[in-house]
TrEMBL record:
Cross-referenced Pfam families: AbiEi_1 (PF09407), AbiEi_4 (PF13338)
Chain ranges of the AbiEi antitoxin N-terminal domain: 10-55
Superkingdom, taxonomy of origin: Bacteria
Record organism: Deinococcus cavernae
All residue ranges annotated as the AbiEi antitoxin C-terminal domain in the record: 74-158
Name this polypeptide is given: Transcriptional regulator-like protein
Alphabetized InterPro entries for the sequence: AbiEi_C (IPR018547), AbiEi_N (IPR025159)
Length: 208
């Protein structure tokens, strides 16, 4: 059986390999008792940033640390709506709460931080248009710009049309815009007809 010292060294190695973060399930997968993590916390070497999520304090805090920690705590949460729009640089407004989508058959655990706004998506909406954001191993899941715009239009009755209109206007100025993909995402979200009308209006305004 490994000694506590060797287990601590193993955890230090794993923290370094995983970008300074480990979850309790990863610790247990190494055959290490969580008491070892507890001693590292007492020594100030590790901090618990979420329930079951630990960060080695010797490493610099990564960009988007709150989003990374949220993803580690709730692996099935996907950044959506205004949070996704902000990540893609399509808005000047940053939401006060992180907006996440989860499947309709899942519950969101209680979180003390960060502040989160939850939306329950049906399977076909939840699964479409996802992408990984960040640099491995510190990544989180969000939606593509096209899916984000479709979701904003789908949710406009609850959150208003302004975020969608701002995002769409900014998106159409980009060289890498993909209108066929945008329409495909809108079809999945059942807002294709409305999006087509908006595209016609915006395109007409540009050519006047």
């Amino acid at each position: 059986m490994e000694t506590s010292v060797s287990q601590t060294e193993l955890l230090r190695t794993r923290f370094a390999q995983q970008g300074s973060y480990l979850t309790s399930s990863q610790v247990r997968a190494e055959g290490i008792d969580l008491k070892v993590i507890g001693r590292m916390i007492e020594a100030g070497e590790v901090e618990q940033v979420q329930r079951g999520v630990y960060r080695h304090t010797g490493a610099d805090l990564p960009e988007h640390a709150d989003l990374i920690e949220l993803q580690l705590r709730v692996p099935y949460a996907r950044l959506t709506l205004m949070t996704a729009l902000d990540l893609h640089g399509l808005t000047t407004t940053r939401p006060t709460r992180i907006q996440v989508a989860i499947p309709t058959n899942r519950a969101m655990p209680d979180l003390t931080y960060p502040p989160v706004q939850v939306y329950w998506y049906p399977p076909e909406v939840y699964e479409a248009g996802t992408l990984s954001f960040g640099q491995p191993p510190l990544t989180f899941t969000t939606y593509s710009p096209e899916k984000t715009l479709a979701d904003l239009l789908r949710m406009a009755g609850k959150i208003g049309r302004q975020p969608y209109r701002e995002g769409l206007t900014n998106y159409l100025t980009r060289l890498e815009r993909n209108i066929s993909e945008l329409l495909r995402m809108a079809r999945i979200d059942r807002v294709e007809d409305e999006l087509r009308r908006d595209l016609e209006v915006l395109t007409h305004d540009e050519t006047r």
